[in-house]
Amino acid sequence: MNSTFWTNTIWYILLGILTLIQLVFVMVKAKRRRLTLALYLTTVGITLYFETIILIFFRAYAYYPMIIEKHSDPFNDVLAGNLFSQFSVSTTALLVSILDLKYYWYFIFGCIYGIIEELFIALGIYSHNWYQTWMTVLGFPILIWVVKKMHSKILQGIKPITYYGYIYMGLFTLYVVTLLWGLDVAGFMQFTTTLFNNPKVSRYSLYLVYYSLSSIFMMLIYFLKPKLRYKSLIIFILYAIYYTGYKQNLIWIKEGWFLSVTTIKIFWMYLSVFILDRLYNGPHKKV
Hints:
Blueprint lengths: L3 H26 L3 H24 L4 E3 L11 H25 L3 H21 L2 E3 L4 H24 L3 H26 L3 E3 L7 H26 L3 H20 L3 E3 L4 H23 L7
Antiparallel strand pairs: 1-2, 3-4
Helix pairs in contact: 1-3, 2-3, 2-5, 2-6, 2-9, 3-4, 3-5, 4-5, 6-7, 6-9, 7-8, 7-9, 8-9
């Protein structure tokens, strides 16, 4: 076993185990488990979307879990660390919301995550650039407040425009993390690093564009339920966009895998919309 497992990876695994324990506890305590799971996916999507932007585009900090060391792009290891972090804070925020804890708990958990952050810095498995621990301590109560408000709104019945926003952010968890990034790490697909001067900005800007186009097109098909010819046209447009990007070297796909990879991505996006809609049980519905 690599020596970095005991110096770096083990701490992220322990954080992951703590996250799973919290999530199980949340699901046991939740009265509406399907709804709670849907809110969790949306919450994770929101935190990952926000944190990925400040991690990649503003280079706020870096993680060193040493999980994907041998991959051609070592930055994927940093992203793996980010996943552990954001799944953890999302789970805790949901826990506080579901249990309806008092406001002072917001700051207690903020301080706990501040201590964890300082511990990770001391261990050399996480580092700040311009970011500071006090931002976590003060920002975490805000996250809890937002999640609690979202939970309250869901129970009252969600307006369609808000509902689609919840679905959109949930898709970041179900689609970008599980499929797009998974295909990247497995060596089947990568976005170009030469579109802008900064390779990371180039690559992950295309991630966001690809995710947004795919989710919007598929949500149109799913929620508007157009006639078959219009569905076929939208799907054809998606294939055409992906093929154009492929030919223009905006996206690299393993030789001979274009049709398979693209079809899987389109199918998985539709399935992800379906799963989230079923978990939320649609807009305007009180639970």
